[in-house]
Amino acid sequence: MAFEDAAVPDPRRGSGSASLVPAQVSGAALRATAEPVIRTEDLTRVYKMGEVEVRALDGVSLSVEPGEFVAVMGSSGSGKSTFMNIVGCLDRPTAGRYFLDGVDVSGLDRDQRAEIRNGKIGFVFQSFNLLSRTTALENVELPLIYAADGHVTKDREERARRCLATVGLEGREKHLPSQLSGGQQQRVAIARALINDPALMLADEPTGNLDTKTSEEVMTVFQRLNDEGKTVVLITHEHDIAEYAKRVVVFRDGRIVEDRASSQRRAAAVNGRAGK
Ligand code: ADP
Ligand code: MG
Predict the structure, then answer these.
(1) N or C: which end of the chain has fewer CB within 10 A?
(2) Which has the closest alpha carbon to 91: 78, 79, 103, 109?
(3) What is the pTM assigned to this prediction?
(4) Number of domains within the chain
(5) pLDDT digits 0-9 by tens, 41-99
(6) Distance, CA of 104 to CA of 131 (rounded, Å)
(7) CA-proximal residue: ligand 1, atom 15 (nearest)
(8) CATH number for the domain including 138?
């Protein structure tokens, strides 16, 4: 599976094909060295259900650079979750390649994917997936407990506290999920996703269970994290929510049919609700 590096006359001898990106593709290409956080090439995923084959992804090529905030849109069944599962290293493509933070992960087995996933990706889901009898602080600490790579309890707790503060939940450390609003619960989930300082925040319909005002509260948090440099990819079927992102990618029938800058970017983090 090695690259044909000999064919690339790059004196710096980089880690692959970064220098082959045509300069006209995007402004990002000019930022010479940084690898895209996500780069897929002709990604295909076919589900086989007995005799029936569903081509859920049909040749998806997409790059996401560090610091981008991308909304993935499309109607139900268009392939958004399938794409998210592969990008999140939860699933493997049937064909095509996927580079995460410069590493070809398309061929990795289950254990290798789990390892890279835990280190590089923070997930946020529609249903917050918090443990109900567990405090906000402990919920945020959980990924570190599972990682069990020698984090001292005190250090773990300190990091979890900082992540909760980042999402505006200072003072709620001892609350159980049932003692928090939906928006606050989702913010705990975002704090949990931040605990390993991931290269990529990946959210699948994070506002799907929330009302409009609470959705705005949660999108404010994502926007602020992005302003601070986090790369965010968020799946939604709501246009209002997509407009918080900087870039909108639209799926239809397993293909990208649109890829554009956000048209009227909503700046919740900067302006709050002023003027609305
Ligand atoms: P979206 O998230 O945009 O609603 P999905 O990625 O969930 O779309 O689904 C894309 C297509 O793949 C749909 O036709 C769906 O029925 C099918 N599909 C998704 N997951 C599976 C699966 N595990 N087995 C079989 N078909 C699936
Ligand atoms: Mg879905």
Answers:
(1) N
(2) 109
(3) 0.83
(4) 1
(5) 999 999 999 999 999 999 999 999 999 999 999 999 999 999 999 999 999 999 999 99
(6) 33
(7) 77
(8) 3.40.50.300
